[in-house]
Structures are given as C-alpha cells and as structure tokens.
Amino acid sequence: MNFGFVIEIVSLVLTLVFIVASAELFTNGIEWLGQRLKLSEGVVGSVLAAVGTALPETLIPIVALIFFSRQHGVEVGIGAIAGAPFMLSTLTLGLCGIACLVFTASKRRKPGLEIKKAVIRRDLKFFIVAYSLALLGTLLPANPLIRNLLAAVLVLIYPYYLYVCFRHEGEVGECPETLYFDRLFKAGSERFRLIIPQIILSLAGIIGGAYMFVGCIQNLSDDFNISPLVLSLIVTPIATELPEKINSVLWLRGNKDTLAIGNVTGALVFQSCFPVAFGVAFTSWNLDHGTLLSGCVAVLFASLYLALLTFSRLKPQHLVLGAIAYAATITAIIYIAPVMPPRLH
Length: 345
Known about the structure:
The chain has 345 residues and is mainly α. It is built from 12 helices and no strands. It has helices spanning 3-36, 41-67, 70-105, 117-136, 144-167, 180-185, 192-224, 228-240, 242-253, 257-282, 289-311, 316-335. Helix 3 runs parallel beside helix 9 (242-253) and helix 9 packs antiparallel against helix 10 (257-282). The longest helix has 36 residues, at 70-105. The radius of gyration is 19 Å and the shape is globular.
C-alpha cells in the first residue's frame, strides 16, 4: 500500500475530527450566548445553533475559492456549496427520522414528531425561495453585474429571515450543556468573559480546519484522478454536518423535536444564502448536471415536507424517505451525470 496515500487519509480524518471538535465548541458557546441573551428555543435552534454547526461547510468553499488553484478551488468550493443543502434536506433529515423511530421503539421517547409547525414551515419557505433563485441563476448570462445582483439578493434574504425569526419570539429554552471553558476555569457558565473567548477560539479552529481540509481533498483528487467536485459534493457535507446530525439526534432523544428539526432547517436557510451567494458572485456558476440534480432534489424534498406540514402532518417515516433519495441521487451523480467543472470569472 502506498505510504503517501495512508498519510493523506489519516490527515483527512484528523482534519475532520478537528473541524467537528471546533464546531462543537462553537455550538456550545453560541447556545450559552443565546441562553444569556434570553432567546427562545426556536431562535436558538434555527439561528444560533444552525449558524454555528453550518460554519464548517460555509467556510470550506470560501477557503477553497480564495486560497487554492483556480480549477481545484472552484470544484471543491462548488461541491461543498451544493452538497450542504442537498445532504441537509435528504440524509440529515432522514437520519432524524430514523433516530426518532429507533428511540420510540426502545421507549426512550414518545412516538411521532411534536414540532412547532410555524417554525419549520418558515424555515422551509425561506430555503425553497433562496435556493430556487440560486439554481435558476445558472441560466443567467455570465454578466458580473447580473450575478452580483443575484448574490446581493441572496445575502439580503437572511437578514429578513432573522427579522421574521425574532419577531415571533417564544419561551426561552432550557440551559444547554455546561460551557466547556467553565469546565477548565470554573468561573460560571453565565459569564460573557468565558462565552465570547470560547466562540472566538472555536471559530479560528473551524477556519484553520477548513483550510487543511481543502488541501487534503485536492491531494486525494490528484492521486486518484477523481473530480474534486464529486469528492467534495459527497465527502465534505458528511463530515462538516456531523454537528447537526449529532445535536439533532440527541435533541430527538430528549423529545426536543422543534430544536432538533429547526437546527437542520435553520442551517438550510443559512446555506442557501451566504455560501451560495459567494459561489454566484465569485464563479461563473456554470453548474454541471450532477450538481443541478442534487439541488433539484433538495428543493423537491423541502417542498414535500412543507406540503406535509401545511396540509397534513410530518411523520418520522416521511423524513426517512430523504435518506433513500440521498442514496439514489449519489448513485446517479457517480455513475450517470457527467462532470463539467465551472469556471472562474
């Protein structure tokens, strides 16, 4: 076995562990910040926790496009940008459904999903609008003015989303797990002097980990002649969305369904605004068939869940369908869809 290959795989795994650990540190700090500011459970789940756990997959495409070669940087960046909403809306929600069924069967939680429909419907509506606009953007002329205008619209959607979230504040959520810095310094989790440094340090770790991760992906794609776009579309979201998956599963076990599902749907909104806007503005946004397929599947399943929440009831079994759709789409991307890398402006 090639020793260099082993080193690259080990480096990739260690980098992923470092990113996830940094994201967990950030999420813990941001949840305590929400508790300290007396924000509702819906806001903490859909905004603070969602943004915190979405940072790795947000920063990876930005780091890739800024610091790495034109071809590899763009391919890794586009793969990460498109892979995050696709995986969140299919596999991640699918795992939530599976976890809910497993915990129900083992008597660890109540059957079904007890969620605040208004919170999840709001998130899904914003995601569908923003990501549909982004996908339609691939049909626009490669005019910098038009693309920058579309990117600006996507960015501005998120402040309006925040306005809607905070306008419908609810009850303050339960206290999160003990602040990690408090375990070291024993100064009280409620103190900003521990919360803010933990957030800043963890953010620096996520940025550094993102840079190392892109380098590992680039090396592996060179060694095995695999498109960095396909590799990034599949590998990057699986790794960087671990915080969402872990947090949501734990919250489902504790019957905190709105917090669990809102963590995912809130991340969907964030991902469809900032990372996508960056891709629209700084690449030609000439998406290949596989990337477009993943985007269409993401919007389709978000629309399906929105319809169920509006006209019926969302059940764990419905969410499980997303995991099946993820597997089918990945198979199609690998074996059917041709890869045509986008180009920088």
